[in-house]
Amino acid sequence: VMPVELSLTFADRAVTTVRLPVEMWNLGPQFVYRVSGGKAVVAAEVDPGRVLPDVKRDNNRWQARY
Q: Which of 5, 12, 13, 51 has CA 20 to 30 A from 36's CA?
């Protein structure tokens, strides 16, 4: 169990990375991160730096579909 970085890309193309605490794993199989500021998120990626061991990286990225 480790903390996780989450990269968020917004509609205005701004990108921010947040570090989710290790305690999130104690909350169950799902964790919700709420983005403040009212900007639309168009993409999200878990572990953007690829520092965590992961055998299936193709499921780490979400992209909005228009």
A: 51
Q: Which residues pair with 46 in a beta bridge?
A: 6
- What ranges make up the beta strands (E) of the chain? 4-10, 15-20, 41-46, 61-63
> What 8-state DSSP symbol labels residue 13?
S
Q: Is the four-CA dihedral 19, 61, 51, 7 of positive or negative sign?
A: negative
- The better pLDDT of the pair 27, 64 is held by 64
Tokens of 17: 């990375």
Output the CA–CA distances (angstroms, integers) from residue 62 to 1, 7, 30, in the order listed.
22, 10, 16
Give the model confidence (pLDDT) of 17-57 as tens digits: 999 988 888 888 888 889 988 899 999 999 999 998 889 99
